[in-house]
Amino acid sequence: MENEVTETAAENFYLSGNYAPVAEEVSTSQLTVTGALPRELNGRYLRIGPNPREQVDPATYHWFSGAGMVHGIRLRDGRAEWYRSRFVESEAHTPNTNVLAHSGRILALAEAGRPPVEITPDLARMAVWDCDGTLGRGFTAHPKTDPVTGDMHAITYNPNFTATRYVVLDDDGKVKHTSDIDLDDGPMIHDMALTETRVVVLDLPVTLAAGMRRAQAGEPVSNLPYVWDDRHPARVGLVPVGGTAEQIQWIEVPRCFVFHVLNAYDNPDGSLTLDVIRYDEVFLRDMHGPGGSVPTLVRWAINPATGAVNEEAIGDYSVEFPRINAELVGRPHRYGWFAGVGAHGLEITDDVERSQTNGGLETGPLVKVDTVTGTSQIHHYGPARVTMEPAFVPRRNAEGEDDGWILSVVHDANTNLAELVVLDAADINAGPIARVHLPHRIPFGFHGNWIPDTEIVQGSMTSLC
Ligand SMILES: [Fe+2]
User: Fold this and answer.
1) d(CA 269, ligand 1 centre) in Å
2) Which of 134, 176, 130 is closest to 151 using CA atoms?
3) Which of 81, 121, 367, 458 is exposed most, by the fewest CB atoms within 10 A?
């Protein structure tokens, strides 16, 4: 199986079409809006993705490795004031994976030993933010913030060290806790889960050790040689919140890989519910990105007392980029919003094998899943118009979990331009509330977030952590 590389140097999916980088930084103002932007959306929608500035070798280029570009759309009082795109530049590196706010700062994030880069709210200045060196071994692109305590929990790793590190930052951005967790083989750990009482470490079979074995055998590897590892276990580690490696409980899970967690929560009987996007395998046939397997939303019911794990598929479509109402991180949730996979939405039926694609990861319509009923809603943005990761923004004084808006960047292949589209999160079928027309395209990237003005402290970049 490990020789079944389907792409050639001339056909790197992740350098073609709307995956191809844009060459220039852009600043535009007074954007055209169709519909009516909600006037309480005062802030900026930011997203980030790989956008290599220098020439890269298509034979070895891995989608996850490209230097980052951040895109920002400023909304205020019902107007779309500007769109700006900026190469992420710092003295150390250029994160490409996530951009979010914490402790009043806007932070661009990546995993595998790279520290956050702080970006000013106007996207004009950037600098490494490593909390006075305490994050010297890097951070993660997918920390989880407890909505009650404000603490930010992170599982970080660094290819140069054997230990994975559990890090907790307080709401001022100060490191308040660390514990090193020794793991074999150098697993890729992209995300994590948090409940009210536990942190969940994903130790799954994509590892640097397997990539090194592949390279030593003369087989093709990318410039980010993390590959599927037949020898590595698939397990999750449960650590008490604020706990240490000595307290970890490992539980075997179905053999798969997970980039993204929708959410997790504790149940009254002591069990744990963990909703994840499951890949049967990844980086086995596609060496340049996560193609080759159909991602599906599954629920793991984990019983720590017995070590039993029950897996159940949820929803009707293949989905990625899962998002919930952030007020429910670590608490029982009902709804998830996702980018559907496949331009038309790939229904998971008996005739769809989960391991069947050889192309890269292509998103399509927006999908909302009700995890209580198991039903899905789907919103198509129109022919040749596909969404990137959605973000849920709660309405002020929201009356329900889905009382708010879905913001996402939609790529229109008809015009080769992007839009920021606002939907009613409670009824995605009702059609767009507003469309902000951008005069440029935004390449398919990774993650984005709505960052309200209230979460930003002006001038924070000069403050000490
Ligand atoms: Fe991610």
Assistant:
1) 31
2) 176
3) 458
Amino acid 15 reads: L
> In which residue are the tokens 């935004």 written?
442
pLDDT per position as a tens digit, 234-290: 999 999 999 999 999 999 999 999 999 999 999 999 999 999 999 999 999 888 999
Per-residue confidence (pLDDT) for residue 360, from 0 to 100: 74
Ligand 1 centroid to residue 378 C-alpha, Å:
22
325-345: pLDDT as tens digits: 999 999 999 999 999 998 888
pTM above 0.90, yes or no: yes
Give the three-state DSSP class for 402. Answer: coil
Q: How many angstroms is it from 78 CA to the middle of ligand 1?
A: 30
Kindly state the tokens that stand for 49.
């993705």
Q: What separation in Å is there between the alpha carbon of 267 and the centre of ligand 1?
A: 26
Residue 318, Cβ density class (10 Å: 0-12 exposed, 13-18 middle, ≥19 buried): buried
Residue 261 Cα to ligand 1 middle (Å):
9
Tell how far the Cα of 404 is from the centroid of ligand 1, in angstroms.
Answer: 23
CB contact at 8 A, 139 and 116 = yes
Question: Topology of domain 13-455, per CATH?
Answer: Methylamine Dehydrogenase; Chain H (2.130.10)
Q: How remote is the CA of residue 30 from the centroid of ligand 1, in Å?
A: 31
pLDDT score at 286: 87
